[in-house]
């Protein structure tokens, strides 16, 4: 039986695929089979993604992203999704990349231990600071997503260059950064573009301790009342967690992106923006490579 929207039989589908019938996202729901088929089974191999990745919903504070994601189609890559993968339109086929497995990552963020099953399963391992996206050829993906990662890396400009390298012409780059006015970074100074450009030219691959000391001084200043040995431990901890190395508000991140693209001679069109003034959270943008 070749299922279509017109002849779909919920009971038949669940009987055909018992693993769907017992999956927490569909079990006990009158239309559970339909929910699975509409999201996965109708447009790709039945088990290609259904049970290998967690089922997630869009949190209220991220609803503004949906209009940007609606532009995407085809095969893509999301980097650093952790437990909040992008909620993409039906028809998008996405793979996940990160620096380590979800088990290793959750060990760095023990506050997320109870959410381990919501973490995506990493398909590709890459350290943006060390090898960039060199494991992928140019023009590999129809879209690429980098949400709240760029503030953690040593060389943001190199990351931007890599994102546009691996996306196809007419493909999309989704990139966002937290607006410091709505985060714990609020007391910190903005990161000057020329500082980042200098690090790009020097091919920097490591975040220096000075960045993490700046983070601690602004966010956890009392740690410096501890002994020198304890202070070293605090610095090592935030380094292990890869806390925010760079700081922007929405206006400055917009300037960062435009200046970066101009200097790298990347021709692109900004197709969607939602900034902190409107969402009280971040600068979120979608760019189409020309």
TrEMBL record:
<keyword id="KW-0808">Transferase</keyword>
<dbReference type="GO" id="GO:0032259">
    <property type="term" value="P:methylation"/>
</dbReference>
<protein>
    <submittedName>
        <fullName>Methyltransferase domain-containing protein</fullName>
    </submittedName>
</protein>
<dbReference type="GO" id="GO:0008168">
    <property type="term" value="F:methyltransferase activity"/>
</dbReference>
<dbReference type="Pfam" id="PF13489">
    <property type="entry name" value="Methyltransf_23"/>
</dbReference>
<keyword id="KW-0489">Methyltransferase</keyword>
<dbReference type="InterPro" id="IPR029063">
    <property type="entry name" value="SAM-dependent_MTases_sf"/>
</dbReference>
């Amino acid at each position: 039986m070749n299922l279509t929207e017109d002849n779909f039989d919920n009971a038949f589908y669940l009987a055909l695929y018992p693993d769907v019938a017992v999956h927490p996202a569909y079990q006990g729901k009158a239309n559970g089979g339909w929910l699975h088929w509409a999201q996965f089974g109708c447009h790709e191999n039945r088990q290609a993604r259904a049970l290998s990745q967690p089922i997630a919903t869009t949190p209220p504070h991220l609803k503004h992203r949906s209009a940007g994601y609606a532009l995407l189609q085809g095969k893509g890559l999301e980097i650093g999704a952790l437990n909040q993968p992008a909620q993409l339109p039906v028809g998008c086929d996405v793979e996940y990349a990160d620096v380590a497995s979800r088990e290793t990552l959750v060990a760095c963020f023990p506050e997320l231990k109870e959410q381990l099953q919501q973490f995506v399963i990493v398909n590709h391992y890459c350290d943006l600071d060390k090898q960039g996206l060199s494991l992928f050829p140019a023009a590999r993906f129809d879209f690429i997503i980098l949400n709240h990662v760029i503030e953690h890396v040593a060389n943001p400009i190199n990351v931007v260059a890599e994102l546009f390298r691996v996306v196809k012409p007419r493909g999309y780059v989704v990139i966002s950064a937290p607006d410091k006015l709505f985060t714990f970074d609020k007391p910190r100074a903005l990161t000057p573009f020329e500082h980042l450009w200098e690090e790009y030219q020097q091919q920097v691959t490591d975040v220096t301790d000075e960045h993490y000391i700046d983070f601690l001084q602004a966010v956890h200043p009392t740690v410096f009342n501890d002994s020198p040995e304890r202070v070293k431990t605090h610095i090592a901890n935030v380094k292990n967690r890869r806390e925010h190395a760079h700081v922007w508000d929405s206006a400055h991140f917009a300037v960062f992106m435009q200046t970066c693209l101009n200097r790298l001679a990347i021709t692109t069109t900004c197709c969607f923006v939602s900034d902190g003034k409107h969402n009280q959270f971040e600068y979120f943008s979608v760019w189409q490579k020309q």
